[in-house]
Write a structure and sequence with these properties.
The complex is a heterodimer of chains A (228) and B (249). By secondary structure, chain A is an alpha/beta fold. Chain A has 7 helices and 7 strands, in the order βαβαβαββααβαβα. The longest helix of chain A has 18 residues. Chain B folds into 3 domains: 137 residues, P-loop containing nucleotide triphosphate hydrolases (Rossmann fold), CATH 3.40.50; 67 residues, no CATH class; 35 residues. Classes of the chains: A alpha/beta (228), B alpha/beta (249).
Chain lengths: 228, 249
C-alpha cells in the first residue's frame, strides 16, 4: 500500500489536481481510496465519489483539524485496506498554514497556487518545507514572469523537493504526478512512524471552549507580545 | 540557456476520433517560427500542451515529444504566453522586473530599462518604470510580457496560445523573440502572425493534418498586410491622442 498525504492552503487546487491524477491512476489499474480532512464543510467527498472510489470525509469541527488529521491517519489507512486499495491519498487543507504535517516514509505532496502571491512560499512553513513534491497550480492565469519568480521562491524554501506545475482545470502536468505516486514506496502500517514536524503547542483555556477575553480567563500555555 | 539551442521533435499520435494523425513527424529547430492553425477545438492547445509536458505517449493524443540540445535540465527551457495570463502582483513595473531578473540570476539592473524600452517599441502607450504592474492596459501587459520573455526569461522555447495582439507590432514582437535562436510555436487565427511564421501546421480533429511552408507569394502578401497593420496602428495612435484622422495614401 502506498500512503500519500496532500496538503496545502484552502482552494489551492488540491482536489482539482488529485481528480485528474487519480483518473490516470485508475486507468493504470490502481485501486485508490481517498480520505479528506476539513474543518466545517466540504464538497470534496462528492467530487471524489464521482470517480467511483471509496472516500471518507472527516470534519474536525471544534477540534484543531491538524491534530484531528494525525489522530485519524490510521483509520483512513484501515478503510483503504478494507477496500483492497493499492494507494491511499489523504487530502487536508491544514488550519494555520503551519501544520498538516507529513509522515516520514510516506510520500508528501504540497499544493500551492500562483495566485496566492509570491510571499506565500515563505509563509507556509513545514507544509512546504518538508514536502517531497511541490505542485504549483494556476500558472494559466498569471504571467510567465510571475510563475518563474514563484517557482524560484518555492525552491528557496524547499530545495530538495521536486517542483511540478499542474493545471487543475485541464490536468496538464498530472501524468507526471501520477508517475511519482505510482513510484512511491509501500508502507504496511503507520503505527510508530514519525511526523516530519511537530504541531504547534496549543493547550490553553480557549482550546477547551473559553470565549471570554481577559487575563483571568487565560490559563495554560499563554504567550504575550511585548507591546509597551 | 540560449547557448544550447534546442530541437523539438514531435512524433505523431492519434486524433480525437482515434485515427492515426497524418503527420507522423514534426521537427522544429532553433530560430524557427511555427504557427498552429485550425478552428477552435481542432487541437492547437493540445499540441502546445503535449510539447510543454514532453508527452511520452501518455497524453490523450499519444504523441511523443523529444526536446534536445539543452544541458539535461528541463527547468526554465519553456516560456509561455497566453490570453488568460495577467499580472497579479502588487508592485511597480521596475521593482517587479528587477525581482524577476534576480530570480533568473541576472543582477545588472540595466535589463529593467531594456525590457521597458523594448515593450514600448512594441505598443503605442508607453509603460513607465513606476507604473503599478496590475494597472497596465491589455496591450501594455502583452508587450511587457513579450519583452520580459525575450530578455529575462530567456528560455530557448516560447509557446504562445492565441494572444490578443491588437495594437502590438506583431512582426517586431516575433522577430525579437526568435532572435537568439529561440523556437517560437504560436497558435493563432491572425493572418499576419500565421504568415510571419516560416511554416504552419494545419490542425484538424485534434490531429496534425498538414504542414505548409509560407511561400514567396504569401511573403509578398505579408508585406502588404504589415503595411496595412502599421497604418491601422498609426491611425489608432492619432485618434487616441485626440487628433483628426486624415486619409493617407
Ligand atoms: N485557473 C485555474 N483554476 C484552478 C486551477 N486549479 C484549481 N483551480 C480552481 O481553484 C478552485 C479551488 O480548487 P480546489 O481543487 O477545490 O481546491 P482545494 O485545494 O481542494 O480546496 P479545499 O479542499 O477547499 O481546501 C476551483 O474553482 C478550481 O477550479 C488551475 O490550475 N488554474
Ligand atoms: Mg479540496
Amino acid at each position: 500500500m502506498k500512503f500519500v498525504t496532500v496538503a496545502g492552503p484552502p482552494s489551492s487546487g488540491k482536489t482539482a489536481v488529485l481528480i485528474h491524477t487519480i483518473r490516470h491512476l485508475l486507468e493504470d489499474g490502481q485501486k485508490v481510496t481517498v480520505g479528506k480532512i476539513d474543518c466545517l464543510e466540504t464538497d470534496d467527498g462528492d467530487r471524489y465519489r464521482k470517480l467511483g472510489i471509496p472516500v471518507i470525509v472527516g470534519l474536525s469541527e471544534d477540534l484543531c483539524p491538524d491534530h484531528y488529521y494525525v489522530s485519524n491517519l490510521e483509520e483512513i489507512l484501515a478503510l483503504a485496506k478494507a477496500n483492497n486499495a493499492s494507494i491511499t491519498i489523504v487530502e487536508t487543507a491544514g488550519l494555520c498554514h503551519r501544520c498538516a504535517p507529513a509522515v516520514a516514509g510516506c510520500l508528501s505532496i504540497a499544493v500551492i497556487d500562483n495566485m496566492s502571491g509570491i510571499d506565500t512560499p515563505k509563509k507556509i512553513g513545514p507544509v512546504l518545507s518538508t514536502a517531497d513534491v511541490v505542485v504549483i497550480t494556476k500558472g494559466d492565469i498569471v504571467s510567465q514572469a510571475e510563475r518563474e519568480v514563484f517557482r524560484e521562491k518555492t525552491g528557496l524554501i524547499n530545495p530538495e523537493a521536486e517542483i511540478l506545475e499542474v493545471n487543475g482545470l485541464t490536468g496538464k502536468g498530472s501524468i507526471r504526478l501520477k508517475n511519482i505516486i505510482a513510484g512511491a514506496s509501500n508502507v504496511d502500517t503507520l503505527a510508530n512512524k514519525d511526523l516530519r514536524s511537530s504541531l504547534p503547542a496549543c493547550i490553553c483555556s480557549y482550546c477547551t471552549g473559553e470565549t471570554r477575553i481577559g487575563n483571568s480567563f487565560q490559563l495554560g500555555h499563554v504567550v504575550k507580545m511585548e507591546s509597551i | 540557456m540560449n547557448d544550447n539551442i534546442s530541437t523539438i521533435t514531435v512524433m505523431g499520435g492519434r486524433n480525437k476520433i482515434g485515427e492515426e494523425e497524418p503527420i507522423r513527424r514534426l521537427e522544429i529547430k532553433g530560430g524557427d517560427i511555427i504557427a498552429l492553425v485550425g478552428p477552435t477545438g481542432s487541437g492547437k492547445s493540445m499540441l502546445l500542451s503535449d510539447i510543454e509536458q514532453e508527452a511520452e505517449s501518455d497524453t490523450p493524443s499519444r504523441r511523443r515529444v523529444f526536446i534536445s540540445g539543452n544541458n539535461g535540465s528541463k527547468e526554465g527551457i519553456i516560456a509561455q504566453l497566453s490570453q488568460t495570463m495577467n499580472f497579479i502582483i502588487d508592485m511597480t513595473v521596475g521593482d517587479f522586473l528587477k525581482m524577476h531578473a534576480s530570480s533568473r540570476g541576472i543582477e545588472e539592473t540595466a535589463v529593467v530599462s531594456e525590457v521597458i524600452n523594448l515593450a514600448n517599441s512594441l505598443a503605442g502607450e508607453p509603460i513607465n518604470m513606476l507604473d503599478n504592474i496590475t494597472t497596465l492596459s491589455g496591450g501594455q501587459s502583452r508587450s511587457l510580457m513579450i519583452a520580459d520573455v525575450a530578455l529575462i526569461s530567456n528560455s530557448p522555447i516560447v509557446l504562445i496560445d492565441e494572444i490578443e495582439s491588437g495594437g502590438i507590432n506583431k512582426l517586431k514582437a516575433l522577430e525579437m523573440l526568435s532572435l537568439k535562436g529561440k523556437i517560437i510555436i504560436i497558435a493563432s487565427h491572425d493572418p499576419l502572425i500565421i504568415l510571419i511564421a516560416d511554416r504552419r501546421v494545419v490542425m484538424k480533429d485534434g490531429g496534425m493534418c498538414r504542414i505548409l511552408e509560407t511561400d514567396e507569394k504569401e511573403k509578398e502578401l505579408l508585406r502588404d498586410l504589415t503595411a496595412l497593420d502599421n497604418r491601422i496602428s498609426a491611425l489608432r495612435d492619432t485618434l487616441r491622442s485626440g487628433n483628426a484622422a486624415r486619409v493617407c495614401v
